[in-house]
């Protein structure tokens, strides 16, 4: 796994532009038996990031493996370049996995990003694994109103381009924002997010990773 870490904002913009051309927006995988979730949190007091990857059985949604990594921040917070900040701890966690997932769901955007290269794209291209972006909030684009029933969706459009889908995963609950990360079509991404949300608004992949990150963050703060 060859990773390039930019040393400046200018280098990061250039690298992002190059990597964005490598995103594959079609289904390019065989069967999916394991699926992973990711989450990253920042601790202000120590200037460290906690990254977690949780691998689930794609059929039962049972946890197979969890890896959590704490690292110092390598890249500053710059809007539009957030993935350069969050990617390093996720890659470190991925390297520790004994069960490599067939697909990854990111707690963040894929193509639904101003420069069409959110964290899900960056992680997917870097690892060469099918990846889906599923954000809690809209980063860019507009969409039509959704009905209040589970499964309702609308295209997310920016500059006359479809960049994702707004998907209601539970009745009368705020929707999520689904987009292609890498090697997955938008319709497949939407279908997987529905499979992963049998009870809650957020996919089980994200929920489990979030719990692991919060637990590690509390332990880190307790040490400080």
UniProtKB/TrEMBL annotation:
InterPro entries: Endonuclease-V (IPR007581). It holds the Pfam family Endonuclease_5. The record marks 77 as: Interaction with target DNA. Its EC number is 3.1.21.7. It is found in: Cytoplasm. It catalyses: Endonucleolytic cleavage at apurinic or apyrimidinic sites to products with a 5'-phosphate. Mg(2+) binds at residues 39, 107. One of its GO terms (biological process) is DNA repair. It comes from the Bacteria. Its cofactor is Mg(2+). The keyword Magnesium applies. GO terms for molecular function: deoxyribonuclease V activity; magnesium ion binding; RNA endonuclease activity producing 5'-phosphomonoesters, hydrolytic mechanism; single-stranded RNA binding. DNA repair enzyme involved in the repair of deaminated bases. Selectively cleaves double-stranded DNA at the second phosphodiester bond 3' to a deoxyinosine leaving behind the intact lesion on the nicked DNA. Belongs to the endonuclease V family. This is Endonuclease V. It comes from Pseudoalteromonas rubra. The lineage of its organism: Bacteria, Pseudomonadati, Pseudomonadota, Gammaproteobacteria, Alteromonadales.
